[in-house]
Design goal:
Number of helices: 3
Helix content: 55-70%
Number of strands: 0
Radius of gyration: 22 Å
Strand content: under 5%
Shape: elongated
Largest sheet: none
Order of helices and strands: HHH
Mean pLDDT: 84
Length: 106
């Protein structure tokens, strides 16, 4: 019978702030969806403005990159907050774990 991984870990092991793989995959999928939705908005804008060919493609590309970039910023901030929240929750669950000390800048 093997021992569980949590039983072999010591309190000196560094804590990982990485969110779960499922959260990261979900964030990636939302970035793709945001880019696709922005491309549709860019396409509609290009049609309304009367652009065709390369002009319409350029507008769609720019809107796709801007939309995916905006969603990516939100996704990264959300994943960082999730990682920090998990770290705080683990620290509160184990009161014997060493507490971080505040840094003094002088």
């Amino acid at each position: 019978m093997s021992t569980p991984l949590s039983a072999t870990a010591t309190t000196t092991d560094p804590e990982s702030a990485l969110p779960s793989v499922a959260a990261r995959v979900l964030a990636f999928i939302t970035i793709l969806i945001g880019g696709a939705a922005s491309a549709l908005i860019g396409s509609a804008f290009a049609r309304l403005a009367g652009f065709e060919g390369a002009g319409a493609g350029s507008i769609m590309l720019i809107s796709t990159l801007m939309g995916a970039g905006g969603v990516a910023v939100v996704a990264v901030l959300t994943l960082r907050a999730l990682g920090e929240w998990e770290t705080i929750r683990r620290r509160e669950a184990d009161p014997t774990a060493p507490q971080p000390t505040a840094r003094r800048t002088s």
